[in-house]
Amino acid sequence: MINTSTIRVLEIDLAEKKIIVQERDDLAPFWGGTGLATSLFAEYVAYDKDPLDPAQPIVLACGPLSAIFPMATKAVAVFRSPLTGEWGESHAGMRIAIAMRFCGFRAIIIRGKAERPVFLTIGPNKVDFQDGTPLWGLPTDETGRILRQISPGRGFRSCLRIGPAGEKQVAFANVNVDTYRHFGRLGLGAVFGAKLLKAMVIYGDSSEPIPDVKHYKEVYDSIYHLAVNTDIMEKYHGLGTSGNIAALSALGALPTENLRKNSFHRSSAISGEAFARDTLVRKVACTGCPVGCIHIGVRRKLFAPGHEYEAAYISYDYELIFALGSLLGITTQEQIYDLIEYVEMSGMDAITAGVLLAWLTEAYQKGIVTKEELGVEPVFNNETNYIKILEDIVNQPNTLYRLLACGTSRAAQELGGQEFALTLGNNEMAGYHTGYANLLGLSFGTRHSHLDNAGYSIDQKALRNNYSLEQIVREIIAEEKWRNVLNSLCVCLFAKEVYTKENICAALSCVGITMTGEDLDKLGEEIFYIKNRTRLKLGYNPNNINFADRFFETSALGQELSRQTLNNMIAMYRSLARI
Fold it and tell me: In this predicted model, what pLDDT tens digit does every residue of 308-341 receive, in sequence order?
């Protein structure tokens, strides 16, 4: 029988090499995922200490539907962000959710700092602390290959690791998960690096009987049908999110050349259609997902005379093509692949890397930084120089590069150029310049992410339906609260139209959790307020959000944006959200 009244939590102390297994009845109302990680993080975080202090926890959590229902494939990480200093939250797919479920833990808490580099193997009955020194310095791909060769649990196993960026505590370093997915954004990789935690392998073979198999099959089949036999998920399997490149460029909402433009003259060459036609070789799915939204392209390189080629298989999507493509004026797929490959191997967040490079290019043009400090000239559409700059952000050979490793917001605050620094809440913007909802959602969303509340989508709906400003604000808040529910289930947000309230309640009933639609709304709201209370204590100050002039200089979806209108919406938001 599935135990729904107790949450099993594994706590790992890296300094003492000790583990504690907790059976927590009090956490059952939060299920898993975002709700569970939020509650645990608020309990364990050291509010008075630096984000990279050994006392700070990393909380990983899967959900109550993980390994049981289609597209319940995500795991959630919550931590104190070294990029913003406040709430850090990131989600990853592939095999991590199923590995945690079969390992027998709904959540894993990691504290302390190892004496020397370490990697962990976490199974149902034990945790092994293994010497990570031989892996230290290796890129993410090589680290993954070694871990798969030497670690147990070949079936339901997930390999998490950092690259050199995380080891050097670059504030926007990420954690690679099973090669094609990541805990990206906000610097979890730097937290791993500060703890001298190079990698984790999670595996298991435990099982949990379903209480009513007939009912479970009926609900499963209904959800599966919506995923594969309707057009709800077709966009994601077909072109994937990269299909947004051409569409947003045509709408005047694609940030280009550090948002000096809102469309890209070479968008057709780097569109999802072009990638699919020219370089797409296969589509991959997270374990437990029938959709297959991960698009893998091939980058062929001549490495010696005489037709000697090597092939790299690289995942691409909209955000990568925006951040390492249009935003940098990059005109070919090959250039984008080369940038993606370096970012992947070094282990840094692609969006932050691209926004930082775009800001740096304009800062160089305006004389804020010099070639002597940088070593090379940052120039739009020059991927070779951009890669050299990224290498030096990892290696940090001088004071400037140590500053750049702190991210765009910090660099602009200290050097100047805030008027064209594309950050909101100190986090680099995602690939949408659509209007007020996007700016407001990114600034006030818990993790300053487009995934908090999809403001970019609300902007487009608002234009079609002539929303009032208050309607826009209310929808932003409602969407974030609802996504707290979806993220506590750990279902993929691409499947949000599949996981309606009715389907969620039916799925939860299969694992012994009785909820109504009203109960779901209350949970989403409770998590919303816990998050906001916590991040205010972490130093988030809604009075200090900087909006760069550039957001108002470049039109969005054909409209000129006004600071006064945005300020009015902020006042509405703060009143309604009580922050």
Answer: 888 999 999 999 999 999 999 999 999 999 999 9
- Give the pLDDT score at 303: 82
Residue 130 and residue 84 share a domain: yes
CATH number, domain with residue 128:
3.60.9.10
Average pLDDT for the chain:
95
Last residue of a domain, one of 147, 173, 203: 203
3-state helix, strand, coil in the chain (%, to 5): 45, 15, 35
**Residue 490 DSSP label:** T
Count structural domains, the chain: 3
Q: Can you give the pLDDT at residue 153?
A: 74
Verify that 461 and 543 share a domain, yes or no: yes
Q: What is the DSSP string of 430-445?
A: -S----HHHHHHHHHS
| Angle of the 469-489 helix axis to the 517-537 helix axis, nearest 10 | 100
Handedness of CA 182, 487, 444, 243 (dihedral sign): positive
Q: Is residue 235 part of a domain?
A: no
| Dihedral sign computed on CA atoms, order 102, 103, 105, 110 | negative
- In tens, the pLDDT along 24-59 reads 999 999 989 999 999 999 999 999 999 999 999 999
Sign of CA dihedral 252, 256, 261, 266: negative
Phi/psi region, residue 294 (left: phi>0; alpha: psi -120 to 50; beta: rest), is beta
Prediction pTM value? 0.96
- Domain encompassing residue 528: 434-496+516-577
Q: Is 180 a residue whose pLDDT tops 60?
A: yes
Number of Cβ atoms within 10 Å of the Cβ of 465: 8
Overall size of the chain counted in residues: 579
